[in-house]
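Dear support,

I submitted the protein below through the web form. The confirmation email said the job was done, but the results page showed an empty box. After a refresh the structure appeared. I'm attaching both so you can tell me whether what I see now is the final result or a partial one.
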Amino acid sequence: MENQLDLISVGDSTIDIFMQVEQKDTEAVCNLKAEERLICFAYGSKIPVSTYRRIPASGNAANNAIGSARLGLKTVLYTVLGSDQDSLDSKKVFENEGVDVNFISVDPSVGSNLSVVLNYLGERTIFVYHQHKKYNLPMNLPVPKWMYLTSVGPNHQHFHEQILEFIQKTKTKLAFNPGSYQLRDGINLLQPILSLADVLISNKEEAAGLVGNNGADVKQLILELKAKGPACVVITDGANGSFASYDGREIWHAGVSTISPVMEKTGAGDAYSTGFVAALVAGKDLPEAMLWGTMNSTSVVGYIGAREGLLTPLKLQEMIKLYGGEVKPRMV
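What the results page shows now:
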């Protein structure tokens, strides 16, 4: 069907507040302990912030919906917004980006989720506030080619059951990029979703926590996750690039690009996942999907926030032509 919807993005949206802390301004009150993964501020001190930005329409599902629309996909977003000004601002952004907002749910009893992103020496630390929202998949939701299910807040088990029923009934392909509350469910509670997922995407730390094997390498993690049912497993591993496999034996690896300095890493994972799934929607193979994801992520980290660097089809092809050779996926 030529006019069929390409993608429904499902999950939370937030307001992101970015605060840039400069090393030269905080040497007396800040101590970075990289080996311990700690950033320490002097108790009771005032910490100078060099830049501040408020970005509505953020969060995993929002980033995916906007990124997919930018890549030319017919995209619907299902999320729950409040009736506050932040929610109104977010909805306006979605409309301006070409995302179908007709299936966004509005709950006047809740406000907006909030993330405060502290950027220091190119790495981000995020403080997250989640409203308790009620998720109910709309009865009249159109049938897409793909559904992208990502982060939702607590009390989502019934919502997951609705997702499963929709996927089974409509034969929609499912990409699953679990958020923190879903990961806390553990692999047994997530098993029904995993068994229906056409693609499971997570970072290495999340994958290790999910299978309870923190010492495992990427190959072992892929094998253990494949055993839970997803057709394809994708694991991102920061500076080590990304890995993907359909059968657990033939594993593809894509490197990371060094074409531009990293401004800020928020949204890098969402950008990768968005590019990867968009390529599959477009009928591309696994290595090409990894390339799309890598280029999208590379562009995003060159900007503050998760949205500004998201690529259009033209910019994507330009980046692949210029820089694709640097990160070309190879079997490992």
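Response: this is the final, complete result; the empty box was a page-load delay. Residues 5-14+56-113+130-331 form a domain with the UDP-N-acetylmuramoyl-L-alanine:D-glutamate ligase fold (CATH 3.40.1190.20).
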